[in-house]
Amino acid sequence: MAPRKLDRSLIRGFDLFRDMTEDNLDAVLATVQVRTVEPGEPVFSQGAAADEFFLLLHGHLKVVQVTPSGEQVVVRHVLPGEVFGIARAIRRTDYPATAEAVTESIVLAWMSTQWPDFVALNPVLAVNALEAVGERLQEAHTRIRELSTEEVERRVAHALLRLVRRAGRPEEGGIRIDFPLTRQDIAEMTGTTLHTVSRLLSAWEAQGIVKSARRKIAVTDEARLAALARG
Question: Does residue 131 lie in a domain region?
């Protein structure tokens, strides 16, 4: 990861920094490291000491976890403006998963020991972190329920709907998921196989529900996809 200089104007618009005074912002930026992460390169790895926490400035990351049986699961995606790697904030000393770049990305990094000072300068961070952890826990519970009770078609439909609603960009003829996404990623998100995901997407494409190309997926009929998710 190569260091880069930080343009302050790039971060002032993020919720995390919007309400900070100039002096507090200066204090936060005095210790930040700015890094460029190439596609496929990890920001941190599962099991490593949680010595830093991060904010994604630009690009896209996916968070993957390897289970005890060796299966890789895509846990979540990180979008610009999101804080991640806050293991110390939830009293973990190691990272529970690996965060790796999907596209060339720029991350801001601080030492985990600075978290209390960071929160003191910007109390809304503690609230945001709690909300983020709550949202991730709720999503994890939802995915566990889907894996336990729903057929594969419904699970894949739910996964695509979540991605569209979180990172969808309207375009002619549909809503494109605004980051590179492979069929293998979807398989790892939904506990199924690449073959099954490919079969479903091909069928849905023939029905006019989705459009897919290399690492690109767009939903062309969200209502019908939602109907499939409901079963």
Answer: no
Q: Which residue has the tokens 């005095």?
A: 30
The answer to whether 87 touches 133, Cβ cutoff 8 Å, is: no
Structure tokens of 109?
Answer: 């990094």
Measured CA to CA, the distance from residue 30 to residue 226 in angstroms comes to: 47
Range of the domain at 155: 150-230
Q: What's the structural domain count of the chain?
A: 2
Query: Whole-model pTM above 0.85?
Result: no
pLDDT in tens, 177-212: 999 999 999 999 898 999 999 999 999 999 999 999
* Interatomic CA distance for residues 112 and 31, integer angstroms: 12
What is the C-alpha separation between 35 and 141, in angstroms, rounded?
33
Starting at the edge strand found earlier in the chain, the sheet holding 61-66 runs: 42-44, 98-101, 61-66, 72-78
Q: What is the pLDDT of residues 49-108, one digit of tens each?
A: 999 999 999 999 999 998 888 888 888 899 998 889 988 777 789 999 999 999 999 999
Same domain, 171 and 110: no
